[in-house]
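Researcher: Next entry in the queue.
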Amino acid sequence: MVEQEPQPGLNQLITYLESRRIRMGLCTRNFDAPVTHLLETFLPGKTFSPIITREFKPPKPDPAGILHIAQAWGLQDGAESLIMVGDSIDDMVAGYKAGAATVLLSCEENENLENHEYTGLSVKRLDELVRILE
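Model: Structure for this entry, 134 residues:
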């Protein structure tokens, strides 16, 4: 965890989402400790709720975690009004199967997913989403 670094543009995106009062949840296959470290170190005071970690069953690529977030927020359309941002095929599959829009955070290791049928959009930096959401 000492080497953990936030994705480029993370703080700018979070600031934008907060300014628009857009809720944020987290659905990850990480354990609780790295998630807590990320939030406390790089996003202190930011609210993500619910936070779905690998303890949630079934895990991604099953869409259950994303659907759980939608249900917790009382969304009437399932996950259709959610955006799943991720960097793996499991993220894209889970988002797509939940009915959410999917955004791939693209890098050299996963660029093969940019044109995958479950990838709705691809960005290189998280703050690229600010322009798109405007």
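Model: The chain has five helices and five strands.
Researcher: Noted, moving on.
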